[in-house]
Amino acid sequence: MNQRYGQFVLDSEIATSTGMNVELAIAVAKADIDRFSTYENDGDKYTIAELDYIKADDLFEKTKQLLIEVLVPVLERLHISLKPLPLLLSIPASLSRHDIRDWLSESEYSAYLSNITISKHQGNLFMAECLQSLDEPDAVLCIAIDSPLSEIESLIENRQVMSAKNPWGMVPSEGAAGMVLTKRNVIDTLKITPQSQLMYMGFDKASTDRRGCSRLIRQACNSHSNLGVVYSDMTNQRAHVEDYGFAIGARSEALPNAQQVNLTNEYWGTLGGASGIATIASMNYLHDSNSLASLFLFDQFNTRSLLIFKPIK
User: Fold this and answer.
1) What is the pTM of this model?
2) SS3 content of the chain, % helix, strand, coil (to 5)
3) 178 pairs with which residues across the strands?
């Protein structure tokens, strides 16, 4: 599935272990102020990134608080003509979509949401759902929340967590990220300035052979000769690193700065299903020119995506 859409990211926001908005989160991450901590299991020490400014007794409560951290500032900045707008939401797989929907429908925020859809997808499949959600509405708010840290024991058992003995692992964290997608006619009518425009998107849903990024970049090069600066939520897992490495070899001429990747997971660990939108928000904040930016997005379900944006500065 490879299509180019003239849709725009009007706004984006994140809540990560390093801060409750994109500006603070990136500033703290770059300052390297106590970003990561250690989790001990059977005498081994593993690297994690804890989110400690939200105090919650369980994952359901933490998910609600993370949703509020992203939802409120985005709604406050949203043009009044776009309220209410539909919400497309992805939550940790272990939680009940029905319970989250009930709570949100009864909350004070429901007045600003014309429709609430709790997706059954995470990662790149949720990203694809987001980017195909503008058929009817003028704008849609997409928010993803996840907590790989809540699955730390299972991840350790499956040797997926980074440690001194296992450098080929992830740094489990937790957080949320959101973005408002809209159309050109809305931008022109309301005379508002978006953060970026989506120029291209491609998805590979069967990347077990670690050639997903190679296929994506070959397809993208049919319409783009230079993919610009690279941003990615790639972890240090071997499947991710090798997949991206093969892509560099496939089309090195299209990635002049292929080795200089802006890795969001190095800022705050992996946000799991929330890392894709968090990478878009980070790109919107960090990219300082109108040149193209390419996002290679990974997940734990053997799917890959390549999104090309033109930031609007």
Assistant:
1) 0.96
2) 35, 25, 35
3) 13, 143
Q: Is the dihedral of CA 255, 259, 264, 269 positive or negative?
A: positive
Residues in Cβ contact with 104 at an 8 Å cutoff, skipping those fewer than 6 apart: 67, 87, 89, 110, 113, 116
In the chain, the N- to C-terminal Cα span, in Å, equals 29
Residue partners of 216: CB distance under 8 A and separation at least 6 = 202, 203, 204, 247, 296, 304, 305, 306
73-96 tens-digit pLDDT? 999 999 999 999 999 999 999 999
Q: Which of 256, 249, 248 is nearest to 296 (CA)?
A: 248
pLDDT digits (tens, 9 = 90+) for 225-258: 999 999 999 999 999 999 999 988 877 788 888 8
Residues paired with 230 in a beta bridge: 294
Query: Of 280, 233, 272, 224, nearest to 7 (Cα)?
Result: 280
Coil, helix or strand for 257?
coil
**Residue from 12, 7, 13, 22 nearest 139 by CA:** 7
Euclidean distance between CA atoms 17 and 25, whole angstroms:
8
- Domains, the chain, ranges and CATH? 8-29+56-155+174-190 (3.40.47), 196-311 (3.40.47.10)
